[in-house]
Design a protein that fits this description.
Length: 932
Amino acid sequence: MQAIEESQIAIIVFSRNFAESRWCLQELEKIMHCNRTIGQVVLPVFYDVDPSEVRHQTGEFGKSFRNFLNTISKKGEDWPYFGLSWNWRKALREAASVAGFVVLNSRNENDAIKDIVENVIRLLNKTDLFIAEKPVGVESRVENMIHLLDIQQSNDVLLLGMWGMGGIGKTTIAKAIYNKIGRNFDGRSFLANIREVWEQIVGQVSLQEQILFDICKETTKIQNIESGKVILKDRLRHKRILLVLDDINTLDQLNALCGCREYLGPGSRIIITTRDMHIMRGNRVDRVYKMKEMDEIESIELFSWHAFKQASPNEDFVEISKTVIEYSGGLPLALEVLGSYLFDRSVTEWKCALKKLKRIPNDQVQKKLKISYDGLNDDAEKEIFLDIACFFIGMDRNDVIQILDGCELYGEIGISVLVERSLVIVDDKNRLGMHDLLRDMGREIIREKSPKVPEGRSRLWFNKDVLDVLSEQTGTKAIEGMTLKLSKANAKCFRTEAFKKMKRLRLLQLAGVELDGNFEYLSRYLRWLSWNGFPLTYLPAKFHQKNLISIELENSNVRVLWHDSLRLEKLKILNLSHSHHLTQTPDFSYLPNLEKLVLVDCPRLTEICHSIGDLEKVILINLEDCISLRKLPRTIYKLKCLKTLILSGCLMINKLEEDLEQMESLTTLIANDTAITKVPFSVLRSKSIGYISMCGHEGISRNVFPSIIWSWMSPTNNLPSPFQTSDGMSSLVPLDLPNSSCQELSSITRYIPLLRSLWLECGTQLQLSLDADKILDVLYATNSKELESSATSQNMDVNGHGGCLLLGDSYPDWLTFNCKGSSVIFEVPRVQGRNLKTIMCIVYSSTSENIASDGLKNVMVKNYTKATIQLYKRESLFSFEDEDGKRLVSSIDPGNKMEIVVVFENNFIVKNTTIYLIYDEPICKKIGFILN
C-alpha cells in the first residue's frame, strides 16, 4: 500500500480471474483512491478481457467476481459484505472507464508491452514545476480545486477560474495542481506570467507556440494571432489536455490562447488565474475558486519557516512575530518576504523594521501589489482607489459613491471595477474595506511622488505630515485631501490661513481640531467635510458650502446649522449626530437633493421642521435617541422615496399616524424604546415594509406581522396560536348577518340582494337561479348536522364533519367549509377546468344583538402553504374595486392550506363561521370529497 501511495503511475492488469483475488481488489481500491485524491495516473491494461465486462461486471469476468463475493459472504470473513462489494464495484467501474490498453490473445504481446512502456516513459518524461520550499496550506487548497475540476466524472471541456489579489498564492496553487493531475491528460501546458509576456513584441504568438510545443512536441512558427488560433484548434481538438493560463488580465489573451471550448478535445481542463473578476463573468468560465488569505495557524508556520527556518517562532520572538503576521494579513507573499527579510536579525532590528513598514512598505511586496493598481483602466479608477486607501475605509459604500460622484469620478462603476480587481472589498454591511497591505501600497504611491516634501503630495493622512503643513502654513494646490484625527487631550488650534493655498482641496476630515480665522480660506471645491467635535455653534456664512456633497459634524457644538438658511443644491448627506446643543433642524426646503439625514443622540432637539416633507429624494432618516422629540410633523408621511426610518430611543414619541402607508418606498422601520404602545394598522397595510422593529416585535415583516396581528386580538375570539409568516394584504368579501337560527331563516331573505351586489362588486358574474328558501337552507345551517341534513335533502355530498359541502347542478358552483368559532381551516380543492371567482364569509353569533358591519374589526386570510397573511380592516371591506377581488382570488391555488379568521369588537362571541368558495362554471354532481 505504501508503494502505491509513493508511485506516480499505477498500471492495473485486468485478467479474467483478476476479480477472484481479494488482494487485487484491495489494491485496486487503494489505487483509485489515490487517483481521486492526489491525482495519481492510472493506466489500465485489459488482458484478454473486454473493458465493458470489467466496467459492468458482466461476462466471464463478472461471473468470477460474483463467485468470489458469494464465497467470502458464506465464510463470513469480510463483514459488512455489502460495503466491500459496493467499494469494489465502484473501483472496477472507475478504472475501466479510464482509457488504457486492450491486449488480446491474437496480438503479439511484445508489441503490446512496447506500447505500454513507451506510454509510461512519455508520462514520466514531464518536468514538474517548482512550487515552494515550504508549501504550507497548499495541499488542502489543491484538493478543493481538484474536486471542482471533476476530472473523472465529466467528459466536457471545463474552464476553472482562480481569482484573488496579488500575492495570495494563485500561481502556487495552479502549479501544484498542474504537477498533481497533469499526467492524467494526453498533454499539458503551463503558461506563466501571461500579462508580462503579452506586452512583449513577439509575446503573443510565442505563447501560442509554447502550447503547441508542450502538448504536441512540435516546433511551429506562427505568423500572427489569428492564424495561431486556427492551428491550435486543428492540433488540439482531438486531445484531452490540461492548460494553465497564469495571470490573465484581458479577454484578448483568453480568446487567443484557448478560444472556445471547441478548440480542445473532450475531457480537457483549463485553469485561469486572474486578479480581475470581470474576465470570468458571463459564461466564460464554468466555476470560480475564490482564493482566501491564510488563517492564523498557516500564517505562523509559513512565516516561521522563512524567519526562523523552523515551523514555529523562537521563544523570544513569539509576541513580535504575531505583530508581523497581523500586519501581513494572511498574504503568503508578505509572510515569505518579511520572514526572509527579518531572518537572523535581533529583536531591536525587528522593532525598527516594523516602525519603518508603517511609513514605507517593503519594496518587494509593494511591486507585486502595485501590478493591480497599474492595470486599472484610467485615472478616475486610480484616483478612487487612492481616495479609499487614505480616507474612506470603513465608510458606507453608497455615501462614498455620492462623494466621488460629486468629484466627477464616477463612483459606482469605479468601485465595482476595484472590487472585481480584488483591490477593494464590500462587507455584508455595505462598508468599504481593503487589505492593509493594499492600503499601504496606495499610500506609498502617493508618498513616492514627493517623498521629502509632504505638501507636494495629493493626499495627506499621516498626522505628523499634516501637523507640519498646518502649523507652518505650507499647503499647496497639489493637496486634494487631508485627514487629521487627534484626541481631545491633544487637540490643536490652527489658523484658517493655513488652507489659503489649498485651492483644490476636495476632502477634509478633522477631529480634535479648532480653526481660527476667516473660513473663506477653505476651498470652494470642498465636497466632503467630516469634522468630529466641530467647535462652533453654527457654520460660518463665509464658508463656501455650495459644492458640499456631505456634511458630517458629529459631537459638534452647533445649536443651529446656519443662522441664515443657505440653499445647498448638491448636499446629499447631513449628519449632526451627538450634537448635544442642537435645538432646531434647518429649513429642509433649501436642501432639495438631500438623501440621508442622521440626527442620532441630539437630546435638546424638540421638533423637526415641517419642511422635511419637501425632501423628495431622502432615503434615510435616523432620529435615534432624540429624547426630547415629541412628535413627527405630518408632512414626513409625504416622503415617497424614504426607505429607512429610525426612531428608537425617542422616548416622547407616542404615535405613528395611519398616513405611514403613504410612504411607498419604506422598507425598514425601527422604533424601539419609544412611547408608542401599539403598532399602527397602516404598517401592515404598507406594501413595502420588509423589516420592522417596534413594540417588542422585531424581524423580517413576514415573520413579525403575525405576532403584531395576534397582539390586537381579543382573547374571547378563541383563536389559535400565532401563525408563522405574512407577505402582504388583500381583500375579503364578508357578509355580516344578524343572529341566525333555524326559526329565523325565513326572515332574512332581504340579504340576498346584498349578497348579489357584493359578488358583483368583486368582479364575479353570479347568476342566482335558485329560490330563496333553497339558498337559505344551505347558507344558514348552524351546525354540521343541519348541513348534512340539508345536503341530503338537496342531493349533495358532505364529509360529515362540517368541513366541505359540494352542491349539485341546480345550485351555484360553491364549495362550503364550516367550523365552530371564528376561524375556518380548509384545503383548497382542485376542481378540474373551473376557476375560483370569489370567497364569501358568513358568521353566526350566539348573542341576541345584531352583528352589524361596524362591529367587525378585521378579517384575515392565512395561506400556510405560501406562508402569507392577507388582512383587511372593517372600513375597507365594502369598497373593493374589481382588481382587489381578483388579486385575492389569484393568490390562492389548489392544494393551498388556508385559514380565514374574523374578529369582532364589543365582545361578540362567534358561534359558527362558514366559508364559500364560488366557481365560475357548474360543478358536476357527486364530485366527491377532496379535503381531508
